[in-house]
Amino acid sequence: NAGVTQTPKFQVLKTGQSMTLQCAQDMNHEYMSWYRQDPGMGLRLIHYSVGAGITDQGEVPNGYNVSRSTTEDFPLRLLSAAPSQTSVYFCASTRTGGRPGANVLTFGAGSRLTVL
Amino acid sequence: KQEVTQIPAALSVPEGENLVLNCSFTDSAIYNLQWFRQDPGKGLTSLLLIQSSQREQTSGRLNASLDKSSGRSTLYIAASQPGDSATYLCAVSSGNTGKLIFGQGTTLQVKP
């Protein structure tokens, strides 16, 4: 199993450009989420989804857009990149409910984004 | 608003020492608490998950405890090894979802 796959691993953008960070999981997990990690601030939740067609905002959603058309994919879109969005982005997934392994997040390797 | 704090931010110990990492949270109404390990430049790996009804969980040399009433959790690492060097993060969830609130982490260095 590949687990959670994020692409690209590194990206440099200019202010105002848009881009999409891709996230795919092959574990049939219902729940998927995006976090950003900044020095000294830990991980903060951007958006999450509890299933295909359902998304919701996390702690820091401004400037980001998501959609969940399939169970496997959860792309994160930066609409107009700003230097404040320079960060490392992590996608994570888990199964929910009372089954074994529920709520144990599996993380991707991360995408390092620099906005100039 | 739930806040999670980990102290100290960094810790350096000699190989073989037993050590404790601390995590505190402000709202005791949690669903579960998880400990993760992060190696430099890598993603997070789940180490232990403690349900709110549990007091501790063990995996190999790792033991995590939970005291909801005091808003604290500890991660005990026995007989530390250089391979344990990493950043350890704790995170709490308020419901049966994957929504987590993370602490800032403790960076551990185990010297040979």
Question: How would the blueprint of this fold be written?
Answer:
The complex is a heterodimer of chains A (116) and B (112).
Chain A: E1 4-7, E2 10-13, E3 19-25, E4 31-38, E5 42-51, E6 54-57, E7 64-66, E8 76-78, E9 87-94, E10 106-107, E11 111-115
Parallel strand pairs in A: 2-11
Antiparallel strand pairs in A: 1-3, 3-8, 4-5, 4-9, 5-6, 7-8, 9-10, 9-11
Chain B: E1 4-7, E2 10-14, E3 19-25, E4 32-38, E5 44-51, E6 56-59, E7 62-67, E8 72-77, E9 86-93, E10 101-102, E11 106-111
Helix content of chain A: under 10%
Tally the beta strands of chain A.
Answer: 11
Rg from alpha-carbon coordinates of chain A: 14 Å
C-alpha termini separation of chain B? 41 Å
Order of SSEs of chain A: EEEEEEEEEEE
Topology of chain B as a string of helices (H) and strands (E): EEEEEEEEEEE
Tally of helical runs of chain B: 0
Q: How widely separated are the two ends of chain A?
A: 36 Å
Oligomer: heterodimer
Radius of gyration of chain B: 13 Å
Task: Give an overview in words.
The complex is a heterodimer of chains A (116) and B (112). Chain A is an all-beta fold. Chain A has no helices and 11 strands. Chain A has strands at 4-7, 10-13, 19-25, 31-38, 42-51, 54-57, 64-66, 76-78, 87-94, 106-107, 111-115. In chain A, strands 2, 4, 5, 6, 9, 10 and 11 form a 7-stranded mixed sheet that branches. Chain A has a 4-stranded antiparallel sheet with strand order 1-3-8-7, with no helix packed on it. In chain A, a hairpin with a 2-residue loop joins strand 5 and strand 6 (54-57). Chain B has 112 residues and is mainly beta. Helix content of chain B is 0%, strand content 56%. Chain B has strands spanning 4-7, 10-14, 19-25, 32-38, 44-51, 56-59, 62-67, 72-77, 86-93, 101-102, 106-111. The termini of chain B are far apart. The interface between A and B is medium-sized, with 30 and 25 residues.
